[in-house]
Design brief:
It is built from 7 helices and 10 strands. The chain has helices at residues 27-31, 48-54, 60-63, 79-88, 93-97, 106-110, 121-124; strands spanning 41-42, 57-58, 74-75, 100-102, 140-141, 148-149, 154-163, 166-173, 176-185, 195-196. The protein has a 4-stranded antiparallel beta sheet. A two-stranded antiparallel ribbon has the order 1-2.
Length: 197
Amino acid sequence: GDQVWMQENLKVTKYVNGNEIPTGYNNSEWSDLNSTQTGAYTVYDDNESNADTYGYLYNFYAVDDERGICPDGWHIPTDDEIKELEMYLGMSQEEADYNSWRGTNEGSKLAGRADLWNDNDLDNNPEFGTSGFNFLPGGCRWASSGLYSNMGESGFFWSSTEFGDGAWYRYLMDINSEISRTHGSERLGFSVRCVKD
């Protein structure tokens, strides 16, 4: 449509003003970041080689920080901006506004790199990878345990739109060609995609 999206997950270690984004937290420290609402990033399984492919995982405190994590001229997409992308790929407004799994094969269209996904419905859809968005199964870091999970199976990315004590995000899974829209804790570690201003 009229949007320009980054084709890779974000992999920055500093805010736009040059301040370092904290990292290096163990599982319990990660889950306790809500007490100070500290922005942080991490790499899946604390293995830097994973960042080369999947980028970093950020909690929402980093996403929402006024110093910004997207480069100048780019920003974290709002929930509505992600809906605009989803509707361009074929969802109706009613589907886009719904919570949980929605659409038909828009998740397959958003995904890329079939070699990284578990072989299942998502990458077996004939529309797999056709959008050029190239979203990958980079997994996540859970809020309450700080554990890493779901690499190869699922990919998650934040919106900038808060909801209750959390924020909206999108979720792709190997067993489903649709896209899930849901909200969760600001302590979760998810991928980030930026959209051009």
